[in-house]
Write a structure and sequence with these properties.
single chain, alpha+beta, about 160 residues, 3-stranded antiparallel beta sheet
Amino acid sequence: MYVTVTGKGKLRVIQFSGSNLEHLYSQNHNFVISYTLKKSSEEFKKLVWEENEWSVKVNPDTGEIFSKEKIVSKELEFKVPISESQIAIECESKKRGRPKKYDKKTVLVNIYLTWSASRVAKYRSDRMRMIDRLKKNMTLTQFKITTKLNLSTNLE
């Protein structure tokens, strides 16, 4: 996962990690974290599927919805690695078990949720194209197997 950072006319992409996120937040940088709904937590999916607070854009000619968006404020929890010196201090305190390697931190973020009919149509088209390829490959494979079976029975 990557984070897109914008500022002063520059656009940078950095790898997502707790320490990078902490740095961005502490320096008051604006940042975007992008990921798919498919890989998100159940809690996040519930936020998305709630019908309230969506701003809906409708095509005035057809009356069809072409996009939806909403902004949700939420606390984001992430892990930040503890420095070696802090781990050593923790080990000296003679606590049982493994020393902690990460601290958990939280920051308040705005989550921008978007939906568009054109993206849905593209995904549907991609899925149908993959299904068609699969059907074609299955037909070719079946033909090859049938041909081999016919050849082997003719040889006997």
